[in-house]
From TrEMBL:
This is Diacylglycerol kinase. It comes from Paenibacillus puldeungensis. Its cofactor is Mg(2+). Belongs to the diacylglycerol/lipid kinase family. One of its GO terms (molecular function) is ATP-dependent diacylglycerol kinase activity. PROSITE patterns: DAGK.
Length: 293
């Protein structure tokens, strides 16, 4: 018998996990996976539980919830030795990461992947000691993810980000950044934002970093140089189609590690959550975690 720990956000996805729980547990148990559960109670709880599950030597950890819960679970696990593989039941609105990994929508299909032990290694990003799996970034526009009220988010999903984004563009301002990436000369200048992608699915922009691969040991960095509102809107439209790489405002490169500093006050966004502020050291932990996928 294997032992699994299922950490789920009971409020995610119209409380879907509560409904599915008996069937999920029964299916796993029938195939030799004895699963105990923890319903998260609020911020930070999933991180504590995941760290505890690693220490207690569970064979499998499963995170059920939105990207927030997943990020918390990864933060509880990453950096430790002897990590068990991680399963993901995507229950949120965007589920960026699960989409990038091609995780099946049907819970039955996903349980079967866990039962058959189908895993693949993934890179984990680290920024000033905290971890991210999808994307990190900074600059005024990346701050909008904290400002979308969560009730609005669940009501109308991704549209909320775009609405807030349009509202925010009017007050878009550049920041002075110094970017020191391993393998490159120092880049210094005024930027609208910088994004560091680990996977290639970012808030509906599937073509933002089409080359980003989850297991290549590299971060894909996209920085947008100072431009006016019209130019920026044009760039966003181009980015939806993946045509932004030839634009003179776009700096794009891959690196395993980089340091970003600024004389200004710049917040760091990690997987849509607030992750401290610059200066920041961003690095990749190559193939650090096994995911059922
Ligand atoms: N019982 C709970 N009640 C309220 N908030 C919770 C609870 N458990 C966890 N949380 C918090 O809710 C945050 C968001 O959760 P999560 O991302 O799983 O759900 P979501 O908002 O449905 O997903 P998405 O962000 O994709 O819309 C988590 O980061 C966590 O801090």
């Amino acid at each position: 018998m294997k032992r699994a720990r299922l950490i789920y956000n009971p409020t995610s996805g119209r409380e879907e996990m509560r409904r599915l729980l008996p069937d999920v547990l029964e299916r796993l148990d029938r195939h030799g996976i004895e699963t105990s559960c923890h319903a998260t109670t609020g911020e930070g709880d999933a991180t504590r539980e995941a760290a505890e599950a690693v220490s207690r030597g569970y064979d499998i950890i499963i995170a059920a919830g939105g990207d927030g819960t997943l990020n918390e679970v990864v933060n509880g696990m990453a950096g430790k030795d002897n990590l068990p593989p991680l399963g993901i039941f995507p229950l949120g609105t965007t589920n960026d990461f699960a989409r990038a990994m091609g995780i099946p929508r049907r819970w039955e299909d996903y349980c079967d992947l866990v039962i058959e032990n189908k895993t693949r290694p993934i890179d984990i990003g680290r920024a000033n000691g905290r971890h991210f799996i999808n994307i990190a970034g900074g600059g005024s526009l990346t701050e909008l993810t904290y400002e979308v009220p969560s009730r609005l988010k669940t009501l109308i999903g991704q549209l909320a980000y775009y609405m807030k984004g349009i509202e925010k563009m009017a007050s878009l301002s550049p920041t002075q950044l110094i970017i020191q990436a391993e393998g490159y000369e120092v880049i210094e200048g005024e930027f609208m934002l910088f994004l560091i992608a680990n996977s290639n699915s970012v808030g509906g922009f599937e073509k933002l970093a089409p080359d980003a691969s989850i297991d290549d040991g590299m971060l894909d960095v996209i920085a947008v140089k100072k431009c006016n509102l019209a130019e920026f809107i044009r760039l966003v439209t181009m980015a939806l189609r993946g045509d932004h790489f030839n634009d003179p405002h776009v700096v794009y490169f891959k690196t395993p590690r980089m340091e970003v500093t600024s004389p200004g006050h710049v917040l760091i966004n990690l997987d849509g959550e607030l992750g401290g502020e610059l200066p920041g050291v961003f690095e990749i932990l190559p193939q650090h975690l096994q995911i059922f996928a």
